[in-house]
Amino acid sequence: MLPRQVVKWILVFLVISPSLFPVSVSEADSSYWSAKKRHMKKKVHDMFYHAYENYLTHAFPHDELKPLSKSFTDSLSELGNLKLEHLPQHYNGSALTLIESMSSLVIMGNNTEFERAVLWLSENLNFDVDARINLFECNIRVLGGLVSAHILATDSANRLVQGSYKNQLLTLAEDLGRRFLPAFDTPTGLPYAWINLKYGVMENETTETSTSGCGSLILEMGALSRLTGDPIYESAALRALRRLWSMRSSLNLLGTTLDVTTGEWIEYSSGIGAGVDSFYEYLFKAHILFGKEDFWRMFHSAYLAVQKYFRHGPWYHEADMRNGKATYWQLTSLQAFWPGLQVLVGDIAAANSSHREFVHVWKKFGVLPERYLLDHLMLHPTEKYYPLRPELAESTFYLYQATKDPWYLEVGESIVNSLNSYTKVDGGFASIRDVTTMQLEDHQHSFFLAETCKYLYLLFDDSFLVDRNYVFTTEGHPLPVLSSWHDRLPEAYIPRNWTFLPSEKQARRASAMTLQVCPATSLDCRHRCQQVKSACHIPDARSDHRCFGDEECGVDATTCRRRTCSMAGYCGLWLFI
Ligand code: DMJ
């Protein structure tokens, strides 16, 4: 038994202790999560450099690393199933993984290595090669990587110190963009899927392409036009996109594959995964980046059709574009990007419920299998692989940005742990050939550095996004939302009265990705890059964008639309379904 006096003092201490140590439960919580974020950021940083340094040691300047044999593959020409015989003997690759890593290097704060990469590419990259490449892959990886790196090299952060940067990356991007143009020379304006960088479209080239192959070129080619002042790239991509949209069915659905010479569909069944995914993504992101109302209208109708014909609870199956009837009941790894897109649209409740299902499947197998048959609740017999894809990490990052719910940090942590336990090898990170045995495959895809590591890093440290407003391309390369790129908005949507912000240091804001849902500021680079704020912006009542009613939501500065409160209690640009 404790003496009475002691018990009394213990009780007194318990009563007054909260004022002696004023750490509330939520402060303790937030310091726990801050420490967790620091720890996880370091883990992701180490993963990125393990992959990057092994690439530099064993594969550079070739395209991608083979981490098991510590060798390389010149995969740019293989992407999309090209056979190796198309490659000339002297072809030495195009340093694909280096190009793809550049924006991640900047996001992780390594300007020195970024500068080294800029200099090397400026001196060595050459597209005048007899190589048949896939237009879509080359656009999102190489053109997107170069355009984004050019913007990062020239933005107000002045990253390059050694000598002056003379737009070498933009010159390379323009050279590549010009080599894309012969692909669009078809009766329909829909581009060939394959093109030889030196000789243009090859004889007897296949006329079959995919919806994403010809409908997701607008961000990179549009940015190239805005940067060079030459509209030819954007016009070609826009013409193809419009033609594709005109091929939709009366249900506003598109198929998966088509013929570029006849403009006829080949595969009528489609979903939100392979062959279509980034088409939807680019309609909406093009609206954010270029402001055109047309993109919004196309996206809005397409999104409603997806929700109506493909969605089944939190899952998305495939359906025939002609009658909307379900065709294949499959969950595919690529579909996991969809909740991230829904966050940008403001459909957070739907994003959250689908994301949970993907997490569930990830946890069941340890990673996401390429294809999972929803009607049989079993793996697809041949597509059991996991090639280090980023889509689940990407959606997790967006959902955390929108909700700040630490549950998403835990999801990110388990993704990082799985990647480290199942795919890390001495020579880098290897793909998984079969998720049931975790047997590895000798390939470290460049998107592991461009996207998987980047989104995981941004989940735990979003300082790159503070006070900035970026759209990430489908390959994870950031492009800034610039008021000067919005010049073709219809009158009603031009955010008027842009005013320059006072130059004193601004207070630290919440991450710009959150602001992207209702951005207060934008970068204007017409003369030199400056932060400008929009007169139409009205912030949400609460900084976490939570709400009880519409009156607590503000006005989105990019679109000047009034935001509304969702059923899940978040302000957003909601769609009425
Ligand atoms: C990436 O190359 C891009 O995200 C593309 O749009 C489809 N998915 C791969 C990675 O999974």
From the spread of the alpha carbons, the general shape counts as globular
* Biggest sheet layout: 3 strands, antiparallel
Share of residues in helices = 40-55%
Query: Ions, cofactors, ligands: which are bound?
Result: 1-deoxymannojirimycin
In what range is the share of β-strand residues?
5-15%
Q: Strand order, biggest sheet?
A: 5-6-7
Per DSSP, the total helix count is 17
- The radius of gyration is 24 Å
Termini separation comes to 67 Å
Structural class: alpha+beta
What's the overall average pLDDT, rounded? Answer: 85
Low-pLDDT residue intervals, each spanning 5 or more residues: 11-23, 79-91, 489-516
Number of strands: 25
Protein name: alpha-1,2-Mannosidase
InterPro entries: 6hp_glycosidase-like_sf (IPR012341), EDEM1/2/3 (IPR044674), Glyco_hydro_47 (IPR001382), Seven-hairpin_glycosidases (IPR036026)
Family: Belongs to the glycosyl hydrolase 47 family.
EC number: 3.2.1.-
Tell me briefly what this model is:
The chain has 577 residues and is an alpha+beta fold. A three-stranded antiparallel sheet has the order 5-6-7. The protein has a three-stranded antiparallel sheet with strand order 12-13-14, with no helix packed on it. Strands 21-23-22 form a three-stranded antiparallel sheet, with no helix packed on it.
Per-chain topology:
Blueprint lengths: L3 H17 L4 H34 L5 E3 L4 E3 L22 H12 L3 H14 L7 E3 H20 L13 H13 L13 E3 L11 E3 H5 L2 H11 L3 H15 L10 E3 L5 E3 L1 E2 L6 H14 L2 H17 L1 E2 L2 E2 L2 E2 L9 E3 L5 H8 L2 H18 L5 E3 L4 E2 L11 H13 L3 H17 E2 L2 E2 L1 E4 L4 E3 L5 H14 L9 E3 L5 E3 L18 E2 L11 H6 L3 E4 L5 E4 L30 E2 L5 E2 L5
Antiparallel strand pairs: 1-2, 3-4, 5-6, 6-7, 8-11, 9-10, 12-13, 13-14, 15-16, 17-18, 19-20, 21-23, 22-23, 24-25
